[in-house]
Amino acid sequence: LKRFSSRSNPLRRSYGKKASGKSSLKAAAIRSIYGGGSMPVEKPRRNKSRTDFIESDFGDYRDAADVLRSKHNQIMLQLLEEEHRREIDREAQLMRLTDPDAKDQLQEKFDNERLAASQKIAKVKRQHEVEMAKVVG
Questions:
Q1: Distance between CA atoms of 135 and 65, rounded to whole angstroms?
Q2: Beta-carbon neighbour count of residue 50 at 10 Å?
Q3: Please, are residues 137 and 61 in contact by the beta-carbon 8 Å criterion?
Q4: Helix count (H) and strand count (E) of the chain?
Q5: Which of 1, 79, 88, 116 is 20 to 30 Å from the Cα of 127, by its Cα?
Q6: Which DSSP symbol is given to 16?
Q7: pLDDT tens per residue, range 5-58
Q8: Cα–Cα distance for residue pair 76/128, rounded to 1 Å
Protein backbone atom coordinates (compact mmCIF):
# COMPACT_ATOMS: atom_id res chain seq x y z
CA LEU A 1 0.00 0.00 0.00
CA LYS A 2 1.23 3.43 -0.86
CA ARG A 3 1.16 6.00 1.89
CA PHE A 4 -0.04 9.41 0.88
CA SER A 5 1.44 12.45 2.49
CA SER A 6 -0.49 15.67 2.61
CA ARG A 7 1.42 16.81 -0.48
CA SER A 8 0.73 13.72 -2.57
CA ASN A 9 -2.83 13.04 -1.43
CA PRO A 10 -5.21 14.27 -4.17
CA LEU A 11 -7.99 14.80 -1.66
CA ARG A 12 -5.95 17.37 0.25
CA ARG A 13 -4.71 19.48 -2.64
CA SER A 14 -5.84 23.04 -3.04
CA TYR A 15 -5.75 22.94 -6.87
CA GLY A 16 -4.33 26.38 -7.43
CA LYS A 17 -5.98 28.11 -4.52
CA LYS A 18 -3.58 29.96 -2.29
CA ALA A 19 -3.54 28.35 1.10
CA SER A 20 -4.26 30.60 3.99
CA GLY A 21 -3.53 29.49 7.47
CA LYS A 22 -0.73 28.73 9.85
CA SER A 23 1.42 26.96 7.27
CA SER A 24 1.40 29.88 4.84
CA LEU A 25 2.06 32.34 7.67
CA LYS A 26 4.93 30.20 8.86
CA ALA A 27 6.37 30.02 5.35
CA ALA A 28 6.06 33.80 4.99
CA ALA A 29 7.82 34.33 8.31
CA ILE A 30 10.64 32.01 7.30
CA ARG A 31 11.04 33.79 3.94
CA SER A 32 11.14 37.18 5.65
CA ILE A 33 13.78 36.02 8.15
CA TYR A 34 16.02 34.02 5.83
CA GLY A 35 15.34 35.90 2.62
CA GLY A 36 13.06 34.98 -0.21
CA GLY A 37 15.60 35.19 -3.02
CA SER A 38 16.93 32.38 -5.13
CA MET A 39 20.22 32.28 -3.21
CA PRO A 40 20.07 29.92 -0.24
CA VAL A 41 20.75 31.65 3.03
CA GLU A 42 22.54 29.73 5.77
CA LYS A 43 20.45 29.37 8.87
CA PRO A 44 22.02 30.59 12.10
CA ARG A 45 23.48 27.79 14.16
CA ARG A 46 22.12 27.12 17.58
CA ASN A 47 24.50 26.92 20.52
CA LYS A 48 24.47 23.49 22.04
CA SER A 49 23.38 23.33 25.61
CA ARG A 50 24.35 20.65 28.10
CA THR A 51 21.16 18.71 27.38
CA ASP A 52 22.11 18.52 23.70
CA PHE A 53 25.37 16.85 24.64
CA ILE A 54 23.55 14.39 26.88
CA GLU A 55 21.08 13.58 24.08
CA SER A 56 23.92 13.06 21.62
CA ASP A 57 25.67 10.78 24.14
CA PHE A 58 22.53 8.66 24.38
CA GLY A 59 22.36 8.67 20.61
CA ASP A 60 25.91 7.33 20.48
CA TYR A 61 24.97 4.53 22.87
CA ARG A 62 21.94 3.73 20.75
CA ASP A 63 24.10 3.71 17.62
CA ALA A 64 26.64 1.40 19.28
CA ALA A 65 23.85 -0.86 20.49
CA ASP A 66 22.32 -0.97 17.00
CA VAL A 67 25.68 -1.84 15.43
CA LEU A 68 26.30 -4.56 18.01
CA ARG A 69 22.76 -5.90 17.61
CA SER A 70 23.16 -6.19 13.84
CA LYS A 71 26.54 -7.91 14.31
CA HIS A 72 24.97 -10.36 16.75
CA ASN A 73 22.07 -11.00 14.39
CA GLN A 74 24.48 -11.71 11.55
CA ILE A 75 26.50 -14.16 13.68
CA MET A 76 23.35 -15.93 14.89
CA LEU A 77 21.97 -16.12 11.36
CA GLN A 78 25.20 -17.74 10.15
CA LEU A 79 25.01 -20.31 12.97
CA LEU A 80 21.40 -21.13 12.20
CA GLU A 81 21.99 -21.40 8.46
CA GLU A 82 24.96 -23.71 9.07
CA GLU A 83 22.87 -25.91 11.36
CA HIS A 84 20.05 -25.95 8.82
CA ARG A 85 22.46 -27.21 6.14
CA ARG A 86 23.68 -29.91 8.52
CA GLU A 87 20.11 -30.95 9.26
CA ILE A 88 19.38 -31.32 5.54
CA ASP A 89 22.50 -33.50 5.22
CA ARG A 90 21.38 -35.59 8.20
CA GLU A 91 17.97 -36.19 6.67
CA ALA A 92 19.56 -37.18 3.37
CA GLN A 93 21.85 -39.67 5.11
CA LEU A 94 18.93 -41.20 7.00
CA MET A 95 16.90 -41.54 3.79
CA ARG A 96 19.75 -43.45 2.10
CA LEU A 97 19.91 -46.12 4.80
CA THR A 98 17.65 -49.14 4.72
CA ASP A 99 18.95 -51.08 7.73
CA PRO A 100 16.88 -50.17 10.84
CA ASP A 101 19.78 -50.80 13.25
CA ALA A 102 22.10 -48.55 11.26
CA LYS A 103 19.36 -45.90 11.14
CA ASP A 104 18.97 -46.06 14.92
CA GLN A 105 22.73 -45.68 15.46
CA LEU A 106 22.87 -42.76 13.03
CA GLN A 107 19.84 -41.20 14.66
CA GLU A 108 21.58 -41.33 18.05
CA LYS A 109 24.66 -39.71 16.56
CA PHE A 110 22.51 -36.99 15.00
CA ASP A 111 20.68 -36.41 18.29
CA ASN A 112 24.04 -35.79 19.98
CA GLU A 113 25.05 -33.40 17.18
CA ARG A 114 21.75 -31.51 17.53
CA LEU A 115 22.24 -31.25 21.29
CA ALA A 116 25.77 -29.89 20.81
CA ALA A 117 24.52 -27.37 18.23
CA SER A 118 21.72 -26.28 20.55
CA GLN A 119 24.19 -25.77 23.40
CA LYS A 120 26.52 -23.81 21.13
CA ILE A 121 23.68 -21.52 20.03
CA ALA A 122 22.63 -20.97 23.66
CA LYS A 123 26.25 -20.18 24.61
CA VAL A 124 26.57 -17.63 21.79
CA LYS A 125 23.25 -16.10 22.81
CA ARG A 126 24.46 -15.69 26.41
CA GLN A 127 27.71 -14.12 25.17
CA HIS A 128 25.72 -11.68 23.05
CA GLU A 129 23.53 -10.74 26.00
CA VAL A 130 26.62 -10.03 28.13
CA GLU A 131 28.18 -7.90 25.37
CA MET A 132 24.95 -5.98 24.89
CA ALA A 133 24.64 -5.36 28.62
CA LYS A 134 28.13 -3.87 28.64
CA VAL A 135 27.24 -1.48 25.81
CA VAL A 136 23.80 -0.48 27.04
CA GLY A 137 24.88 -0.21 30.62
A1: 6
A2: 7
A3: yes
A4: 3, 0
A5: 88
A6: T
A7: 555 555 554 444 454 555 555 566 555 555 555 555 555 555 544 444 444 444
A8: 10
How many CB atoms sit inside 10 A of residue 3's CB? 6
pTM above 0.85, yes or no: no
Question: CA torsion, points 88, 94, 96, 99, in degrees to nearest 10?
Answer: 180
Query: What is the DSSP code string of 61-108?
Result: HHHHHHHHHHHHHHHHHHHHHHHHHHHHHHHHHHHH---HHHHHHHHH
In the chain, what is the greatest distance between 2 CA atoms, to the nearest angstrom? 89
